[in-house]
Amino acid sequence: MKKRILSLLLIVSLFLAMFSTGTALAQDSSQANLSQPVISDWALDDLIVGDQYGIYPIKWYYEVGINKPITPAQLRVLMAGIRLKLIKTDCVTNANDVKYSLKNKMTVKDVLETFYTLIKSYEFNKDIGIVEGEKAVDFMAKTGIFTGKEGELSLKDVCTIEQACVIATRLVTYIYEVLDAASKGFLWEINSGENTVYLLGSIHMATFDIYPISSKVLKAFKDSDVLCVEADILNAQDDILYLLLQYGYYTDGTTLKDHVPEEIYQKAVAAGAALGLTEEVVALMKPWYIYMAFSSYDTAVSLTEDEYLTSINLGIDTKFLTDAYLTGKPVIELEGLEFQIKMLSSFSDELQELLLESTLDSILESNQDSKTDNGEDIKLMLKYWHDGDVESFLETVAPSLMMSELPVISEEDKMALELFKEYKSKFITERDKGMAEKIDQFLKGEGSTTYFVVVGSLHYISDYSIIDILKDKGYEVNQIK
Hints:
Blueprint: H1 2-16, H2 19-32, H3 41-51, H4 59-64, H5 72-87, E1 92-95, H6 108-120, E2 122-124, H7 136-142, H8 161-178, E3 186-192, E4 195-202, H9 215-223, E5 226-229, H10 237-247, H11 262-274, H12 279-284, H13 287-294, H14 297-300, H15 305-313, H16 316-327, E6 331-333, H17 337-345, H18 349-364, H19 368-387, H20 390-396, H21 398-402, H22 411-444, E7 450-456, H23 458-461, H24 466-472, E8 477-480
Parallel strand pairs: 4-7, 5-6, 5-7
Antiparallel strand pairs: 1-2, 3-4, 3-8
Helix pairs in contact: 1-18, 1-22, 3-8, 5-6, 5-8, 6-7, 6-8, 10-17, 11-18, 13-18, 22-24
């Protein structure tokens, strides 16, 4: 029973913890700023989208230069990326072998015809709009994949990497939309007077597989006046170090060794060493901070550092925060980084020790099956998000988190259960109440404003969630699929 509770704590943290991803983002952005690529204004919006598809390597920006002519080798990389996305639609019924003749300095028209030949080589279970005898350029023009306007190259121009990536991105977006294969997400809508609130459940770490996102979700964001998030992690980098030094480290002359049993301390040192941290650093960290800093390691254990940072940057809240800053959309924090860190540091000593031990045991566990299970749990949750399947998420995840029906348990398990209740109260319940109150204020506000609210998915479907609270206040909440 105790092991089950500890496993649940790890799953909850992966869905609701924010500040630890912000720390990683700070590291990632500092590296990215070393070299700024030159991107054409007309291509920027599409490339922001394409970066999330995984159809071309991001290093092309920095190591190659995207304004150079695309080479046959690079074009084959793009074609491989498109093929993979097509297969992942689960709508491909057959694929025919086709030989391609690629050459140096291909024109935009050459690239359009190559991509057109590629998609025609696949058979789908739905119509994607290809008409027999239709020319590639005509298909690409009627679908908006190629416009030739607003700075784009003309058909006779030598195609650049930038132009090819834009065409590939639009092609994938179009096909996913017509095949109804884009991620639906967990999206709800509330209307009150002239105010509208869209509620989108986030997953803070994600993969390329959940992109593209449905046009319904993207339209809701575009139509919104304001983006609301738990914490603005992209604008909090300067605060992270100060807040962590204030709340996450011992500054009174004591160390971790003075606050936890020797066995747990040694586990912390060993786990820290596995992550590249010295004993001197780990010893100064408080239990809650070690728990948060290390908790995602068990899921990301098979990833490289770049893959791990990519999974964070593909998180839903990060995606919309980035889009908001690039489009000039205002951002409102429902909580803020300092609130979240204070909340975590308010855990009782007993709960912090339990969380710490559970995380350390997970990292140091030699049984690889436990690591695989955690990874599979996250994949399953991402699939539910992709399908917009709230019901399956509720049936699979939420009941285990509520833990309303329990068998007879031992005294040790009873103690662990009480600590789980404290964790759930502070980490979920009280936060749900606070965020629901702010959303209620948005809906009651004067004027006409549309809000796009992105918070962890469990905040919308936990026991007496944000949505439950808003319904009790008399609002009609409708899911958009």
